[in-house]
Amino acid sequence: MTTDKPLRADARRNRDALIAKAREVFDAGDFFDLRFDDFARLAGVGTGTLYRHFPTREALAEAVYHGEVAALCDRARQLQATLPAAEALATFLRGMVDHIEAHEGLARTLATLMADRSGALAEGSRALEQAVTDLVAAAVRDGSVRDDVDAGAVMMALHGIGAAHDRPGWRVEADSVITLVLDGLRSPRAARAANSAYLKEEIIVL
Amino acid sequence: MTTDKPLRADARRNRDALIAKAREVFDAGDFFDLRFDDFARLAGVGTGTLYRHFPTREALAEAVYHGEVAALCDRARQLQATLPAAEALATFLRGMVDHIEAHEGLARTLATLMADRSGALAEGSRALEQAVTDLVAAAVRDGSVRDDVDAGAVMMALHGIGAAHDRPGWRVEADSVITLVLDGLRSPRAARAANSAYLKEEIIVL
DNA sequence: GACACAAATGGAGATGACCTCCATATTTAG
DNA sequence: CTAAATATGGAGGTCATCTCCATTTGTGTC
């Protein structure tokens, strides 16, 4: 996708400095309070240089986002390789909440950009979505998750969690969303198995 | 909350014109492509007048939002009065998706503003959240919904749906999210009852 | 090392959106 | 009808964004 032109040494150095500074500012949550020109100063380059590397705020955001997404995708793959499908999915989703909580400012910033009609980040999140899709597909295959819902639904829920980051009881509610989604995803067959302890009693009652 | 000063006749007329035009522009999804000054022209008032009535874009958005929220809350109350709790909740959530789909541009615009750190809309959405909370509480009371999740989780999911409005398979995915949430919300007891048809077979198999 | 060519820099200044201010117009009260 | 209060609108100030290009820095060649 990205045409890999061999970047000159100083250019690469500046580019890296910009991304590093951006990540820092993101995490602090100051990304939108800062004049873009001032950001250039902050990173130790001129405005022209900033604009050459990242024509827009979003372009810069996407560069930062890439790193995040890559790390998360790795994590997904790793879980998928070492855990039963259903457990891998659950662990990954729970972990996402941890991750979002840990990088509060970053999550907030990304959610804001996400909502912008630009869609620049939609492209970047494609990879993340693929990872989730894989996790769900594996769980469907082994019968622990229903087969009539799309992984996109899970993405939507995650998006909601990320976007609502400033709610008072965020952490608790976010966990609840994951619980709802996971319980909702459980296939009828699996759900019945999980409830088998109760079932025995119920049968008698019935 | 809003100090009700008796507004002069022409002032009210202009104010209403602004809100009407805003709703129109919202629905078309052009809210952010439009220079705020130009918007004043469009509504037939001077920039000064626009700024007096609505000091910021968000202030204007909130005014539009108020109408939306009021309508939705009415709907929630009506459903709650005429249907069993679980059904009222389900119907309301399904209806939200219809509503968001019908007012695409508006939903999109509001999601964008929602994500902004301003939080101006968070206040406005309080009422909507209360309505959802009531619906959930009623369903918990009659035992059709588990009691260990907060209504806030449902709000998050809804938020995710609204914010992701430009996804290709939006409608299908949005419905899936609602399905997941509703199934996830079903209390263990209710879930078992709903599955009773399957249970009979299962018992034999077991 | 020195030369030349390409690539990159940075910051001064143009651009254009946002918002303020106030002389004028409209409404309301007495 | 008059005056006081209230509201109007758009010209112009302010400030962030982005462009442009004269200068500097890196890279490959002899």
Keywords:
homodimer, 206 residues, mainly alpha, Arc Repressor Mutant, subunit A, Tetracycline Repressor, domain 2, 2 domains, 11 helices, 77% helix, DNA-binding
In short:
Two copies of one chain form a homodimer. With 206 residues, chain A is mostly helical. Chain A has helices spanning 9-28, 36-43, 47-53, 57-82, 85-102, 104-115, 120-141, 151-163, 170-185, 188-194, 196-205.
What does this 3D model show about the protein?
Two copies of one chain form a homodimer. Chain A is mostly helical and 206 residues long. The first copy, chain A, folds into two domains: 1-55, Arc Repressor Mutant, subunit A (Orthogonal Bundle), CATH 1.10.10; 57-198, Tetracycline Repressor, domain 2, CATH 1.10.357. The first copy, chain A, has helices at residues 9-28, 36-43, 47-53, 57-82, 85-102, 104-115, 120-141, 151-163, 170-185, 188-194, 196-205. The radius of gyration of chain A is 21 Å and the shape is elongated. Residues 195-206 of chain A have low confidence and may be disordered. At the A-B interface, helix 6, helix 8, helix 9, helix 10 and helix 11 of A face helix 6, helix 8, helix 9, helix 10 and helix 11 of B. The structure holds a DNA duplex (30 and 30 nucleotides).
